[in-house]
Every structure is written in C-alpha cells, then in structure tokens.
Amino acid sequence: MELEGRGAGGVAGGPAAGPGRSPGESALLDGWLQRGVGRGAGGGEAGACRPPVRQDPDSGPDYEALPAGATVTTHMVAGAVAGILEHCVMYPIDCVKTRMQSLQPDPAARYRNVLEALWRIIRTEGLWRPMRGLNVTATGAGPAHALYFACYEKLKKTLSDVIHPGGNSHIANGAAGCVATLLHDAAMNPAEVVKQRMQMYNSPYHRVTDCVRAVWQNEGAGAFYRSYTTQLTMNVPFQAIHFMTYEFLQEHFNPQRRYNPSSHVLSGACAGAVAAAATTPLDVCKTLLNTQESLALNSNITGHITGMASAFRTVYQVGGVTAYFRGVQARVIYQIPSTAIAWSVYEFFKYLITKRQEEWRAGK
User: Fold this and answer.
1) What span, in angstroms and rounded, lies between the C-alpha atoms of 247 and 241?
2) Which of 14, 230, 271, 289 gives a 20 to 30 Å CA spacing to 240?
3) Residue among 153, 218, 146 nearest 184 (CA)
4) CB 339 within 8 A of CB 242
5) Which helix (H) or strand (E) holds 327?
6) What angle do the packed helices 228-253 and 261-278 form, to 10 degrees?
C-alpha cells in the first residue's frame, strides 16, 4: 500500500510520492528536506546542497606565522614581563647562589646545599631576608630584558637572512645573542652590584638607597661597572651557548615553530643548564668583583680587585682550582627554572600580543 504524497500535509513544497517513486524514496527525500540539505521547487534554492563549513579551532594565526606583525614594541613588552617575572620568582635561589660563591665565607654562612642554605637564612635572619634587594633587581630587569629580546629578535632575523636565507642559522642565533648581551648588561650591571652587596651575609645595607649612596661616595660611579667586562666575558659565551642550544632544541621539539609551551619550557631549561655549568668560573669572578669580599681582599695587595685578570688570580690564590666552581649547584638549579620561565613567559606574551594585534587589524 503506497503512502500518500506530502504536497499539502508534509514538508512545504516537498516532493509527493508518485507512481514512479517508492515509499522508501519518498521518506528519504522528506528526511533530506527536514535536515535542510536539499530544497524542492517551493522551498527556496533549488538543489542547494551545502556541506557545513568546518571551523578549525586552531584556525587563528600560527605562532611562527606572526613575525611580520611582531613589532619591536611587542618584543620589548614581552621581554620586560619575562625578565621581571623570572628574577622575582628565582630571587631567593639567586641570594643563595651569591652566598655560596663567597670565597672565604663567615663560619655562620657555610652551606652544604641550596635547600639547607635557604632554610638557615630564613631561620636565622628572617623570612624576608632572601628577598632583600628584589626591588632594584626588578627595576633593572625590565628595561634590560626589553632591550635584550628586541635586539636578539631583530638581529637573528637579519643575520639569518644573510647567512642562511629562508632558514635558521645557529651562527646567527649565537651572534645575535652576543650583541643583545651588550645592551642587557649595560642596563643590568648597576642593579647587579647593588643586589649582590645586599645579598651577602652580614650586609650593612637594608635599603637600596643606602647601598647606592655608600658605593657612590666610597668607590665612585665606576664601581657600578667594575664587573662589566667580566660580566660580558661571562655572558657573551653564556648567551651564545644558551641561544644556540635553545634554537637547536626547538628544531627537534618544535620543528613547525608553533606556539608550544612545553617545548619552550624544556628547551629553555636545558639551554640554561648547559650554559650555566660551562660559565660558572666566570660567574664566581663576577661575584667577587661586585662584592669586593673583604676576606678575599686580604689576599690581594692592591686593596681593590679591579679587573677580570685580578679576579681570576685572587680566586685561585684563595681557593685553588675548585674555587672556580663554587656555587655551581646553586647556579644550575637557579638557571634551569630561570630560563624556562623567561622563555615560556616571553613566547606566551609575544604570541598573545601579536595575535591580538592581528585580530585588531583584521576587525578594522
């Protein structure tokens, strides 16, 4: 028994079951009409059969598709946020590192490891003692890292286009990191001097202004840059190793160069650890130049340690070869999360800011 057509009682404008159409065919056509896949003569566009457009949740611009829109301002803002956050989070470990690099520490300031040092500092000197000097560090870290990342990104692209057009050049990465270090250290060195003097055991300085005034009056303005050459001697190879290792690991963990937080964290942590371990002797000398540690000065006839050669000689006279690796554990422990935080925060804000800029331009 055939079903009656639906010209009037079925779907409006739908095809009726006729002599040449089976009940199954009529039901199938009716189903299509109800789902809006096809329209009959009275139902709008004849034969319009449009598959739904698939919305890709990742249809936004890829991370590495954004460099053209990532302005110098974007790099500077992202770099400043990353630098401040990195130094603030890791500051207690940085305080421990400074003390463990002391060549002839006070008996009350001899520590076996990082955790014991941090616990003893808090227990004997107060909860907030490991944070003394944080404000001057944050003040210096913002502009220093803004210049650092902006210079690195610009030079990396420029040099890569010359050395390896259309590709990634490890030489360009290392060279860009070295040049960026010149700007970073120029902005950060005075803050480093003040910070490390406030971190030392029995430091007479409780306020940043007191320390700045004392250094200026007793040693002159040059004291704020006494360790600059050593800082560069340490940081230039450090940053060359750091950036080359980071970009090398990115090629393996993130070959498509998308925004990938886990790859940024892992690559940053590994790059920081390798670079930190390799440059620890230079960091020990830098700390000595910054702090002018009184007990170490007793072994130096000039009364002041004024250069890298003098610092290297004093370190060896006081502690031998092993003294060059004082605090290596604290330095590596500090650098692993430090560079992981810096790269992940920088890449996140760089991606976020650039994406918002692209969306704003598209909506204009």
Assistant:
1) 10
2) 289
3) 146
4) yes
5) none
6) 140
Structure tokens at 232: 């560069």
Pick from 276, 252, 266, 265: nearest CA to 347: 265
| Model confidence band, residue 9 (pLDDT cutoffs 50, 70, 90) | very low
Cα of 134 vs its chain's centroid, Å: 19
For the stretch 130-177, pLDDT in tens is 999 999 999 999 999 999 999 999 999 899 889 888 777 888 999 999
Which among 301, 242, 288 is positioned nearest to 105, based on CA atoms? 288
List the chain domain ranges: 70-361
Distance CA 176, CA 154 (A): 8
Radius of gyration of the chain (CA): 32
Is 296 in contact with 323 (CB distance < 8 Å)?
Answer: no
User: Contact 85/341 with Cβ under 8 angstroms?
Assistant: yes
Letter for the amino acid at 22? S
Helices and strands (H, E) in the chain, number of each type: 12, 0
The CATH number of 70-361 is 1.50.40.10
User: Mean pLDDT, to the nearest integer, of 291-301?
Assistant: 60
* 120-129, Cβ contacts within 8 angstroms, sequence gap of 24 or more: 121/95, 121/96, 129/95
d(CA 227, CA 334): 21
CA dist., res. 227 & res. 208, Å (int): 19
